[in-house]
Amino acid sequence: MGHANGFAEALSADPFEPGRHQIRVEIPQPVLERLSELAGIPAHYRPTFANSLRELFGQSHRWHRIARRSVEMDSAAKELGRIAKDARKLKTKIDKLSKQAQATLGLHALRLDRYGEAESPEAVRDQIEDILRSGCLDQAIQKVDYLSWAVGRLGSAAAAETWPRLQKGSTARWKMADDRMAPYRDTFDRFVIELGKAVEVCNGPGRFDPNEINSYLISFLEAALPYLPKGFVPKELFESHKNGEQSASSRPKKFRLFGRGLRRQTAGLLRLPSPRRP
Questions:
Q1: Domains of the chain by residue range
Q2: Which of 32, 166, 258, 266 is buried most, with the most CB atoms less than 10 Å from its CB?
Q3: pLDDT truncated to tens, each residue of the chain (278 aa)?
Q4: 58's torsion region: left (phi>0), alpha (psi -120 to 50) or beta?
């Protein structure tokens, strides 16, 4: 199903370019009516639900942009991890230097700050002599402390990650895939939670259970897909549906959407009902 929404196409594909904090997706009224019908929203609540959908769909583009940026940044984790490891080792070595070695390193660092690279050993000796005559030995020692701090900060920057790693125990298929795709999966999970809250506020039925996925949500997503970011909805959802892995009964077989620990993580955002057994 194509993504024909002109607004989505106008957004930059580069996740590192500045983006707007608030994004509003224009959804045709007939589509809003169809989505409200699929969500089971009473008629007098549909204008409120339509506004919630516009805001939520706009947020989905912003969340997906952040997730895409995290995927690209964290994909360099292996390469940067070596720098982080080396930086930690170097900091430890600097911190363990003798007083004589600290003074020597500090004098050379201070000399480079003041004079730049020297052309000869004789120039190095003259520059150090000038530093000592000006009574700047204490500054040289402080320079070593700064170098230790800077190397430590480098190691921290190289080791930083923008997204938590996938927790063990998840049973959803798309959560068992490449761990680097976790930002996309978590962002979709957040969308389902917020969608369920919007339905609840508008007195809609509990068709969109944030703990599991069913044919009601599949139908809603199929109708909403052109107005969501490309790649936002895990393709495994539609593949499972098309392959007949859901029951054809009025109460379809349900697939786990969240990991075991997500109920505890989202307890402060939403009071989750106990899962209903089919």
A1: 6-76+167-265, 78-159
A2: 258
A3: 444 444 444 555 666 666 555 677 889 999 999 999 999 999 999 999 999 999 999 999 989 989 988 888 888 887 888 899 999 999 999 999 999 999 999 999 999 999 999 889 999 999 999 999 999 999 999 999 999 999 999 999 988 888 876 666 554 544 555 566 788 888 898 999 999 999 999 988 888 875 677 888 889 999 999 999 988 988 777 665 555 554 444 444 444 444 444 343 434 433 434 444 44
A4: alpha
Q: What residue has token string 């997730």?
A: 67
Would you list the DSSP string of 213-254?
E-HHHHHHHHHHGGGSPTT-S-HHHHHHHHTT-S-SSSS---
- The tokens describing 100, both together, are 């004589």
pTM above 0.90, yes or no: no
